[in-house]
Design a protein that fits this description.
The protein is α/β, with parallel strands linked by helices. The protein has one domain: Rossmann fold. Helices cover about 25% and strands about 20% of the residues. It contains 7 helices and 11 strands. Strands 1, 2, 3, 4, 5, 6, 7, 8, 9, 10 and 11 form an 11-stranded mixed β-sheet that branches. The longest helix has 25 residues, at about 220-245. The protein is globular and about 60 Å long. The mean pLDDT is about 95.
Length: about 290
């Protein structure tokens, strides 16, 4: 049994979190580059929280520019045990109208211009992504969303596109034939990196629009997205508080906590010490290195 420290990655429209006790802001450095911004630490009830706005203050970072490796690394460094991500998405289904909060359970990764792993030459690892989110955290987030009055759907496939442009109509229709439910620009490689960091991860995808597959409607525009996004963000902030207040007093271990046990493949004698040094927070548990804490 260990204490919860919930990392929250705020998506479009969610740049700060209210109601934190013992609030303080820290600048955390990462060997993987510059994170999106400072991390805000505090508590809601008995739960420690660490908040990081994905796009930085004022939404200064495009989806491709977000350094997801640094973001996940700094959340690990401040002691996070679990990560909740909130993301603005478009809907690819008639029954997922704007304003719906969707608990994602699968991804299709169509990004191509981003670093997607902490591991590589000198220290290779292969984690399983068959089930990319934590069912325990997803269920808790769904319950919290319902508690604050959101329309909630559990179970959906998230198509992660590179962006920053929105889809063509042909692409939108293609993704619908693939069985995708929502489309966004930031869910990957974030979910992959959280798994490599042994952080149980859940995604609340907040629908802002119908993408562009509805031929009878005008294509999605940023001003339309922003209007719904701000409404969703207010509900999202209430969700975070409800989630923290509803978590069990003690955190039972998760299988994801030890997923690197069966993932490292590079022989010990072939491991690059400089690469191992960068992995002190991400893989320190299995590499015999102490994880630095902020």
């Amino acid at each position: 049994m260990t204490e919860w420290t919930l990392g929250v990655i705020g998506g479009s429209g969610l740049y700060e979190i209210a109601g934190l006790e013992n609030r303080r802001t820290v600048r955390v450095t990462s060997p993987f580059g510059v994170p999106s911004g400072e991390v805000t630490l505090g508590r809601i009830g008995e739960v420690n929280l660490a908040f990081l706005p994905r796009h930085g203050p004022g939404h200064r970072l495009s989806p491709t520019s977000v350094n997801a490796r640094a973001n996940v690394d700094v959340l690990k460094r401040v002691g996070c045990t679990d990560v909740l991500a909130l993301s603005a998405v478009g809907s690819l289904r008639e029954d997922l109208p704007p304003g719906t909060f969707v608990l994602v359970d699968q991804y299709i990764d169509r990004t191509f211009a981003r670093e997607k792993s902490f591991f590589g030459e000198g220290m290779v690892a292969h984690v399983s992504m068959a089930d990319p989110v934590c069912p325990r955290l997803s269920r808790a987030a769904a319950a919290a969303a319902r508690a604050v009055g959101a329309r909630v759907v559990e179970g959906a496939t998230y198509l992660a596109m590179e962006g920053p442009q929105f889809s063509t109509r042909a692409e939108s229709e293609l993704y619908r034939t693939w069985g995708c439910h929502v489309i966004g620009m930031t869910g990957m490689p974030e979910a992959k990196l959280a798994r490599e960091a042994e952080l149980p991860y859940a995604c609340v995808a907040m629908v802002t629009d119908y993408d562009c597959w509805r031929a009878e409607e005008a294509a999605v525009q940023v001003d339309q997205v922003i209007a719904v996004m701000m409404q969703n963000a207010e509900t999202g902030r209430a969700l975070i508080s409800a989630l923290a207040e509803g978590l069990p007093p003690s955190r039972d271990p998760s299988p994801i906590d030890t997923c690197l046990d069966a993932a490292l493949i590079t022989a010990p004698e072939a491991r690059d010490p400089s690469v191992l040094a960068r992995l002190d927070a991400i893989a320190g548990r299995v590499l015999g290195r102490s994880i630095p804490r902020i």
